[in-house]
Write a structure and sequence with these properties.
This protein is mainly α. It has a domain of 84 residues: EF-hand (Recoverin, domain 1, Orthogonal Bundle), CATH 1.10.238.10. It contains six helices and two strands, in the order αααβααβα. Strands 1-2 form a two-stranded antiparallel sheet.
């Protein structure tokens, strides 16, 4: 049994060694395969680099050849231009020489002509100077005549302007006299109108005074008919007209002319009316002060139709009543 066991152990040992050897061989084969694959990749890369290098070298050779061809063409073109420039310079030199020759010929021709002209003008110069002197004298004479004509024209213009000015002054004088006559006539007309209005005013005042006398006579007849004594009517019958605040018999009571004057001051437009609102101012100007009740009573008596205005006639009758 021991031999069999020993044999079996040896077999197992050999089996393990064989397995180890197989695994080592597999690992070596794998590493070798990897190195081969890597070498193949490097070989492909090397081939590509060689191809690119060859391609680049070919491009460089082509570029160098093109540059050399371009250089040769440029040199040929420069040579052609130099030849053309040389030809042009030669042509310019020939043209310059020809131009100088022509200039010299022209100068000689002009010199000959000048000499001929001097010889021709020697005899004509004196005649020409005489003609110039005669022409200057003629021009001076014409200038004097023109100056005299201008002076005469200016004198005529001055005389014409003076005549027109005198004529205008005469027209202005006549116009002034006409306007003065019109203004005088208008003034006389206005004075006549003022006199007429003054006369009319006096007639109205006399008429109002006459009406006042008639009214007083009527009051006296009424007092006589009622059997009242003289002076009792003021107490028996309340006063319905006249300045309500005025005391009878005042020595300094304004007369009718003063009333007309104060009324005219308020009647700025000369219509013969004043506004009812101006009644208090009129009474104040006449030296009479009214309280509110008196002013209301006077307004109702003077503006019975509530027209908002008071006539001079109504006020004068009321004042004198």
């Amino acid at each position: 049994m021991s031999d069999a066991q020993a044999q079996e152990e040896q077999n197992q040992v050999r089996l393990l060694e064989a397995q180890r050897s197989r695994k080592a061989a597999q690992e070596d084969a794998l590493r070798l395969a990897n190195r081969v694959a890597q070498l193949q990749k490097e070989d492909e890369k090397a081939k590509k680099r060689i191809q690119e290098t060859q391609k680049r070298a070919s491009e460089i050779r082509n570029l160098r050849k093109r540059n050399e061809d371009h250089k040769l063409e440029k040199e040929a073109l420069n040579q052609q231009r130099n030849r053309e420039l040389a030809m042009q310079m030669e042509q310019l030199t020939v043209a310059k020489r020809e131009n100088e020759r022509r200039k010299q010929e022209s100068a000689e021709f002009l010199a000959r002509q000048k000499r001929e002209m001097r010889e021709m003008t020697k005899g004509e110069q004196a005649s020409h100077e005489r003609q110039l002197a005669e022409q200057r004298l003629l021009e001076r004479k014409k200038a004097l005549e023109s100056k005299e004509a201008v002076r005469q024209k200016q004198q005529e213009c001055k005389e014409k302007q003076l005549s027109e000015k005198q004529k205008q002054m005469e027209q202005n004088r006549l116009e002034y006299e006409r306007r003065l006559a019109e203004e005088t006539k208008e003034q006389q007309k206005k004075e006549k109108e003022l006199q007429k209005l003054a006369q009319q005013e006096m007639e109205l005042i006399e008429r109002l005074q006459h009406k006042q006398l008639e009214q007083r006579t009527a009051y006296e007849e009424l007092e006589s008919a009622l059997g009242l004594k003289k002076g009792e009517s003021r107490d028996a019958f309340p006063k319905t007209s006249g300045p309500v605040a005025a005391e009878p018999g005042l020595a300094d009571e304004p007369d009718e002319q003063e009333v007309a004057k104060q009324f005219g001051i308020l009647d700025e437009e000369g219509t013969g009316f004043i506004a009812t609102g101006q009644l208090n101012s009129l009474m104040t100007n006449l030296g009479i002060s009214l309280n509110d009740a008196q002013l209301e009573q006077a307004t109702s008596q003077l503006d019975k139709d509530n027209a908002g205005k008071i006539s001079f006639g109504e006020f004068l009758l009321w004042w004198s009543g």
